Amino acid sequence: MKAWLGVLLAVAAAVPATAALRPGATAPDFTTRGAVAGKVFTLHLKEQLRHGPVVLYFFPAAFTSGCSAEARAFAEKIDAFKAAGARVIGMSADPVDKLAAFSKAECAGKFPVASAGPAIVKEYDVALGRQIEGRDITSRTSYVIDQRGRVVFVHDDMNPAEHVATTLAAVRDLKNRR
């Protein structure tokens, strides 16, 4: 019981008051273009969820210092996410050709990154309200989505330092509850 209370307190602390999708909400389904190891493909969230939980992490812009560091950190821990039964998908408003290069260089080809168009950005409430190179950028928000399509954890913080550790802990907790 104490462990569960700790998880609830951690979730409450990680979810900002402005997050649109809170734990228990249905994650909006989407289809978009993404890339893994430089190869472009069509990514459908519902299809990804058939294989287990998904860590859907939004980042502001490919090839910026914080986003590159975060991608490398997810790549370093990808085996731990897989062992916990989860897939990792990075999302930004970058065009897919830029994400294809980012998927090779920073993600080490270990997980896909996909283009979040305006509808996805709105549905996940991740608009940062700023632009880079004439396009809107997203906040740094990580969602853990269970196999049923429900948000079970949210971490919303522009500092990339804790996203990997907190989402991995949430995925491991989810695995232990199954």
TrEMBL record:
Pfam families, per database record: AhpC-TSA
Keywords carried by this UniProt record: Antioxidant, Disulfide bond, Oxidoreductase, Peroxidase, Redox-active center, Signal
PROSITE patterns for the chain: THIOREDOXIN_2 (PS51352)
Signal peptide from the UniProt entry: 1-19
EC class of the enzyme, as a word: oxidoreductase
Gene3D superfamilies noted in UniProt: Glutaredoxin
Location of the Thioredoxin domain: 21-176
GO molecular function terms listed in the Swiss-Prot or TrEMBL record: thioredoxin peroxidase activity
Transferase is among the record's keywords: no
InterPro entries the UniProt entry points to: AhpC/TSA, Peroxiredoxin_BCP/PrxQ, Thioredoxin-like_sf, Thioredoxin_domain
Gene Ontology cellular component annotations, sorted alphabetically: cytoplasm
Entry's EC annotation: 1.11.1.24
Keyword Translocase in record: no
Domain of life assignment: Bacteria
Catalytic activity: a hydroperoxide + [thioredoxin]-dithiol = an alcohol + [thioredoxin]-disulfide + H2O
Any GO BP annotation: cellular response to oxidative stress
PANTHER family for the chain: AHPC_TSA FAMILY PROTEIN, THIOREDOXIN-DEPENDENT PEROXIDE REDUCTASE
Family designation: Belongs to the peroxiredoxin family. BCP/PrxQ subfamily.
Role played: Thiol-specific peroxidase that catalyzes the reduction of hydrogen peroxide and organic hydroperoxides to water and alcohols, respectively. Plays a role in cell protection against oxidative stress by detoxifying peroxides and as sensor of hydrogen peroxide-mediated signaling events.
Protein name, UniProt field: thioredoxin-dependent peroxiredoxin
Source species of the chain: Sphingomonas sanguinis
